[in-house]
Amino acid sequence: xxxxxxxxxxxxxxxxxxxxxxxxxxxxxxxxxxxxxxxxxxxxxxxxxxxxxxxxxxxxxxxxxxxxxxxxxxxxxxxxxxxxxxxxxxxxxxxxxxxxxxxxxxxxxxxxxxxxxxxxxxxxxxxxxxxxxxxxxxxxxxxxxxxxxxxxxxxxxxxxxxxxxxxxxxxxxxxxxxxxxxxxxxxxxxxxxxxxxxxxxxxxxxxxxxxxxxxxxxxxxxxxxxxxxxxxxxxxxxxxxxxxxxxxxxxxxxxxxxxxxxxxxxxxxxxxxxxxxxxxxxxxxxxxxxxxxxxxxxxxxxxxxxxxxxxxxxxxxxxx
Amino acid sequence: xxxxxxxxxxxxxxxxxxxxxxxxxxxxxxxxxxxxxxxxxxxxxxxxxxxxxxxxxxxxxxxxxxxxxxxxxxxxxxxxxxxxxxxxxxxxxxxxxxxxxxxxxxxxxxxxxxxxxxxxxxxxxxxxxxxxxxxxxxxxxxxxxxxxxxxxxxxxxxxxxxxxxxxxxxxxxxxxxxxxxxxxxxxxxxxxxxxxxxxxxxxxxxxxxxxxxxxxxxxxxxxxxxxxxxxxxxxxxxxxxxxxxxxxxxxxxxxxxxxxxxxxxxxxxxxxxxxxxxxxxxxxxxxxxxxxxxxxxxxxxxxxxxxxxxxxxxxxxxxxxxxxxxxxxxxxxxxxxxxxxxxxxxxxxxxxxxxxxxxxxxxxxxxxxxxxxxxxxxxxxxxxxxxxxxx
Lengths: 320, 391
Hints:
- The complex is a heterodimer of chains A (about 325) and B (about 400).
- With about 325 residues, chain A is an alpha/beta fold.
- Chain A has helices at about 35-45, 60-65, 85-100, 115-120, 125-130, 180-185, 200-215, 230, 240-245, 275, 290-315, and strands at about 50-55, 75, 110-115, 135-140, 195, 220-225, 255, 260-265.
- Chain A has an 8-stranded mixed β-sheet, with helices on both faces.
- Chain B has 2 domains: about 5-245, 3-Layer(aba) Sandwich (Rossmann fold), CATH 3.40.50.970; about 255-390, Rossmann fold, CATH 3.40.50.
- In chain B, about 40% of the residues lie in helices and about 20% in strands.
- In chain B, the strands form 3 sheets. Chain B has a 7-stranded mixed β-sheet, with helices on both faces.
- Chains A and B meet through strand 1, strand 2, helix 3 and helix 5 of A and helix 3, helix 4 and strand 9 of B.
């Protein structure tokens, strides 16, 4: 499934940032939503020759209340757990229709899904699509819980976070399991391109979209998506928080192209995880003395992961 | 007109029909007894005999999801499943019809677990009565072949634009080797021109498919879908008539056999109809006043056509191949009791649930059912044939 051709493109910089967002204003996302912000960046970089398959979730609901739509792209929503399969069907149709001369151009397929729709309920559908090698880009918006239904825990919820189904109680201090690392699970599928991005580093994010679009085969990008409702943070801190996530190495920015890992951003000063946790109400209980071990354990894990990632990056090795 | 008559397993005949229909995307997951159909189709694709994309999905849920995506993108789409596979598709079946996507699916009817059973009955499709699809039942290999082709024409008609399920009994029909006459490719091409979607996913003309239905629009959306299904009856009748003409046979929504204007009528769906037909012939030879009505179109249910076929009958012996646990009788009998409710000349409806999980129902058993019904010895609710003591 390795790329056979490289499509040349002009790399996005601060000077030539694409302006046209394919999601119009007037959508119903919360004020300060980090997810729709990232989605807008994706559509700016991806251009117009796109067909979107969107899983059920916040982004589906806020952009498509009939008879209104925020989408300037052809868009299909089917269900929660099947964006990978729906995208597979669209891609297969494009292939055969193009081969038979029924359509002139071959649009790109982009699947959008949240972390629940990706790492939990939709994992099988996504894994199947990646294994079959469909030419499509799957984007996960990771806000770390089922935010659309009211912040229930997902497999991607970080260790210790308080959610409505992993509440910080007097005997259980929040989610007692570590986050499912869906990016690494996708890397283990040996697909040609896997990356992690953050809306705080918008040029990096858009370049990753550009690169993914230039590669044939299945691609996966996991984008951190701050949700102030679920994270219990201020509504104007989506960018600040996602920057802290990057600079604490909670959310390192990297890409893995044809099995070679490359860090796309190294923090000038690696900040303590506490800096990322403190502004978020979902972690407030971790700052009580009896729960500090959770922060310590998380910090240890992040440090180890960061060292391993740097080693892989330096060696140009695979992520696993 | 070039035609070929061959002895062929019905599953392979269905695959040939899908090839003749020039399906463009096939997404399927294997499940007994559907496997031979999709194995054959994947072979056609591998050998370049069919220019299609075969998506070997990782589950039936994804089979239907990929079918929805492919149909929305404007391709002619086929899938096939059975039993647990159909049950796993459940969620997406409603969405396929609500999005008005003309997917054609063969259902190789099989019982539902538990206990797990790979053998035939209608439990799988009866659990999916309300999915909003056109639902046909076929009885033999010839019909399976021709109605598979006709199903695309029905589904893709712009007056319909709904998915169509072609039900055929697992093993009893799918694995039977029968003589089948295939139409010439040119005949099929003339009967079934290329699919022209009314709307599709196209960057040059973007549309939003599958939006949120707020309370102010949900009801109207559901009504439109049901109306489309109800209105499809006329198109189904029209296409079946044209199929009959094209393939030199006769296809009606409801078929009748045996003595005309008989007092007692067997009602069947699917391959048991052939055994009943043999029983009715034998009974007629013995001078018994009995006939048979076969339901070919199950959804939308052809109420007028069914009533017309039953005109003058005093008793219907309705054969169900599924239970409706906790209800009063099997699903087909429920339907018929409903449509005759308060009719002045409504026939008595007795219900026999037979052949579940592949249990054999020989011709002699139908003759016995007739004799018991005549004596009034069949239960007023239903008789589970072979288990209930009164039978």
